[in-house]
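User: Can you recover a sequence for this backbone? Please restate the input before giving your answer.

Assistant: Of course. Working from this structure:
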């Protein structure tokens, strides 16, 4: 049975009014299952980043619905949305959005501070996240002293420090050289494979998209292709002749959405 985590119906996003009106999204219907690795792919201006911002509850649609575990997110109050994002979602962006004058540890701790986690527990969890991305020895360093690849690994540590169910990655390797980018990709896919974290990557990079189990192609604000398949690197997908298609044995995580 499918475990649909995120679902959209008739999703539209319009900017401006009258003569300056621009339709960024023109009625998007998609379902994303828990544990999937999904690439949202398209050229610049296609609407792919707008779609990610809506899926991540960072913005409100002009029309349509976004459901999280079957519950309409439009019914959630802003405070609940903020708590939900901080607890259940992790974010990795092309631009690192770090406090470069602060330490690596303090950058990773930030989501835990927002969540109200106690100081001792914050440090413990932040150090564990840094060890996961192999930067435990850099916790005292200023973020500004790190290489681009190290900064992106710090961002991934920050994204996973709250043990999220979903990681949204917007062009995560866009500012990195190919060798460093490959390491970041491997880290993200390992988190998807080994921890069952749903991975949603926004990119224009066909090679990166092909490594995901599914590719949703966006053009001019519309879905023009939704290719479901199995990434060759991902052994967690298993074929079952009794099922129509593929299933992921890591599809187990569920986000508790309480309406207020």
């Amino acid at each position: 049975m499918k475990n649909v985590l995120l679902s959209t119906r008739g999703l539209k996003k319009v900017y401006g009014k009258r003569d300056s009106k621009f339709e960024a999204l023109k009625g998007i219907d998609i379902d994303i299952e828990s544990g999937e690795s999904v690439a949202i792919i398209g050229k610049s201006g296609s609407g792919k980043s707008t779609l990610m911002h809506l899926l991540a509850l960072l913005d409100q649609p002009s029309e349509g619905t976004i459901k999280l575990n079957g519950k309409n997110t439009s019914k959630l109050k802003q405070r609940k949305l903020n708590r939900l994002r901080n607890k259940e979602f992790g974010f990795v962006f092309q631009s690192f959005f770090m406090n470069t004058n602060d330490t690596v540890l303090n950058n990773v701790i930030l989501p835990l501070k927002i969540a109200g986690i106690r100081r001792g527990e914050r440090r413990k969890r932040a150090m564990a996240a840094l060890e996961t991305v192999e930067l435990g020895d850099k916790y005292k360093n200023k973020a500004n002293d790190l290489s681009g690849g190290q900064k992106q690994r710090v961002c991934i540590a920050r994204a996973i420090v709250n043990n999220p169910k979903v990681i949204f990655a917007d062009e995560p390797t866009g500012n990195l050289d190919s060798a460093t980018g490959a390491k970041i990709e491997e880290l993200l896919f390992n988190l998807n494979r080994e921890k069952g974290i749903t991975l949603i990557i926004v990119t224009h990079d066909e090679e990166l998209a092909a490594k995901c189990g599914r590719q949703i192609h966006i053009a001019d604000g519309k879905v023009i292709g939704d290719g479901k398949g199995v990434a060759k690197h991902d052994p967690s997908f298993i074929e079952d002749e009794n099922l129509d298609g593929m299933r992921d044995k890591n599809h187990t995580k569920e986000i508790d959405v309480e309406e207020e």
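That completes the design. The chain is about 30% helix and 30% strand.
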